[in-house]
């Protein structure tokens, strides 16, 4: 049984008013729980003009963050440079239209990360699980999921002073001990570089496109994982939970997660591209659930204030503008796009 945390009133929980651009769904990995990927050649890349049209519609919809979420082209592919350039250009475009980009495009080279820092206020990559045994099961055909490759991304982000979001995918064949080991690794890297702004605890939620036949992570277990994560992680790392995946609100699951120590609900937009079978609630719907339980839902930027000084001058001035207006925006959902 998790005891409520002693918190001062009003208790706040944050979310990011966001929209996801997908440069491509093609991915050379084949994680068996994936509901996102297509084979190479099956997903036309998002053109800059298509993206510009979409972004211009979003300018009046209260969106702040543009999450650039891409499937991966193999690092040794002849198309890698073009793929990377598209991701860079989308970030630059989003910035030019006044949005704050956050890119998650799988493992990158050090030079790719360094370049993307110029057009992103933060970046992300799920560590998922450190245990190598998943390379024999759900990640057997997913070279990008080699734990050492992903740990190195966290290290490089730290060296480059990139505010970073990472997290665990729960319920893909790991043990409880594996959770704590993964969380301890994140904590260790953060103690060195101080750059991890959020850790997402994402429960495996089966979707209609995945090949792996396995049950969902039990939402009743999530509060205990959150409470233990709160003990392991440094206090300046926020724990994020995806509100569309934590179980039915009427079951009290979101509130139980907050009582256990989660304080952020991530990017809320019209579609969860990674879990398309689980629509996001709107901010208004979340407020109706959370306010009676004593929680105030507050919009935030995709970069936390303690990292503003790490940004280049042009990014910082845009972020400063957003800091003065973010409280006045509301959820971008539902969007008419
Ligand atoms: S989960 Fe990510 S890395 Fe794995 S196949 Fe899907 S898009 Fe690719």
From TrEMBL:
<dbReference type="GO" id="GO:0016765">
    <property type="term" value="F:transferase activity, transferring alkyl or aryl (other than methyl) groups"/>
</dbReference>
<dbReference type="GO" id="GO:0044689">
    <property type="term" value="F:7,8-didemethyl-8-hydroxy-5-deazariboflavin synthase activity"/>
</dbReference>
<keyword id="KW-0408">Iron</keyword>
<comment type="subunit">
    <text>The FO synthase complex consists of two subunits, CofG and CofH.</text>
</comment>
<dbReference type="InterPro" id="IPR013785">
    <property type="entry name" value="Aldolase_TIM"/>
</dbReference>
<dbReference type="Pfam" id="PF04055">
    <property type="entry name" value="Radical_SAM"/>
</dbReference>
<dbReference type="InterPro" id="IPR019939">
    <property type="entry name" value="CofG_family"/>
</dbReference>
<comment type="similarity">
    <text>Belongs to the radical SAM superfamily. CofG family.</text>
</comment>
<dbReference type="InterPro" id="IPR006638">
    <property type="entry name" value="Elp3/MiaA/NifB-like_rSAM"/>
</dbReference>
<dbReference type="GO" id="GO:0005506">
    <property type="term" value="F:iron ion binding"/>
</dbReference>
<protein>
    <recommendedName>
        <fullName>7,8-didemethyl-8-hydroxy-5-deazariboflavin synthase</fullName>
        <ecNumber>4.3.1.32</ecNumber>
    </recommendedName>
</protein>
<feature type="binding site">
    <location>
        <position position="34"/>
    </location>
    <ligand>
        <name>[4Fe-4S] cluster</name>
    </ligand>
</feature>
<dbReference type="InterPro" id="IPR058240">
    <property type="entry name" value="rSAM_sf"/>
</dbReference>
<dbReference type="InterPro" id="IPR034405">
    <property type="entry name" value="F420"/>
</dbReference>
<keyword id="KW-0004">4Fe-4S</keyword>
<keyword id="KW-0456">Lyase</keyword>
<comment type="pathway">
    <text>Cofactor biosynthesis; coenzyme F0 biosynthesis.</text>
</comment>
<feature type="binding site">
    <location>
        <position position="31"/>
    </location>
    <ligand>
        <name>[4Fe-4S] cluster</name>
    </ligand>
</feature>
<keyword id="KW-0808">Transferase</keyword>
<feature type="binding site">
    <location>
        <position position="27"/>
    </location>
    <ligand>
        <name>[4Fe-4S] cluster</name>
    </ligand>
</feature>
<feature type="domain" description="Radical SAM core">
    <location>
        <begin position="13"/>
        <end position="244"/>
    </location>
</feature>
<keyword id="KW-0949">S-adenosyl-L-methionine</keyword>
<dbReference type="InterPro" id="IPR007197">
    <property type="entry name" value="rSAM"/>
</dbReference>
<comment type="function">
    <text>Catalyzes the radical-mediated synthesis of 7,8-didemethyl-8-hydroxy-5-deazariboflavin (FO) from 5-amino-5-(4-hydroxybenzyl)-6-(D-ribitylimino)-5,6-dihydrouracil.</text>
</comment>
<keyword id="KW-0479">Metal-binding</keyword>
<dbReference type="GO" id="GO:0051539">
    <property type="term" value="F:4 iron, 4 sulfur cluster binding"/>
</dbReference>
<keyword id="KW-0411">Iron-sulfur</keyword>
């Amino acid at each position: 049984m998790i005891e409520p945390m002693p918190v001062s009133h009003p208790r706040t929980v944050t979310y990011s008013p966001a929209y996801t651009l997908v440069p491509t769904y093609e991915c050379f990995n084949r994680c068996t729980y994936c509901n996102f990927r297509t084979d190479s050649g099956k997903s036309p890349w998002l053109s800059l003009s298509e993206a510009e049209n979409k972004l211009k519609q979003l300018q009046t919809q209260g969106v702040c963050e543009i999450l650039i979420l891409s499937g991966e082209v193999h690092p040794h592919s002849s198309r890698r440079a073009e793929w990377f350039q598209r991701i860079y250009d989308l970030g630059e475009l989003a910035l030019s239209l006044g949005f704050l980009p956050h890119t998650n495009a799988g493992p990158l080279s050090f030079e790719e990360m360094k370049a993307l820092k110029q057009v992103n206020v933060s970046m992300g990559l799920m560590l998922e699980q450190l245990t190598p045994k998943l390379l024999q099961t759900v990640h057997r055909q997913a070279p990008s999921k080699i734990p050492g490759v992903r740990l190195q991304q966290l290290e490089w982000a730290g060296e480059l002073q990139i505010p970073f979001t990472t997290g665990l995918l729960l319920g893909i064949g790991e043990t409880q001990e594996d959770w704590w080991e993964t969380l301890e690794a994140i904590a260790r890297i953060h103690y060195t570089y101080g750059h991890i702004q959020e850790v997402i605890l994402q429960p495996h939620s089966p979707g209609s496109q995945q090949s792996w036949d396995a049950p969902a992570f039990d939402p009743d277990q999530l509060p205990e994982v959150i409470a233990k994560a709160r003990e392991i992680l440094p206090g300046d790392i926020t724990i994020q939970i995806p509100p569309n995946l934590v179980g039915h609100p009427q079951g009290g699951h979101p509130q139980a997660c907050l009582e256990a120590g989660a304080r952020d609900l991530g990017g809320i937009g019209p579609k969860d591209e990674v879990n398309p079978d689980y629509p996001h609630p709107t901010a208004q719907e979340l407020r109706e659930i959370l306010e009676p339980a004593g929680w105030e839902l507050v919009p935030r930027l995709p970069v936390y204030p303690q990292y503003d000084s790490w940004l280049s001058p042009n990014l910082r001035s845009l972020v400063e503008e957003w800091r003065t207006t973010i409280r006045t925006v509301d959820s971008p959902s539902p969007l008419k796009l």
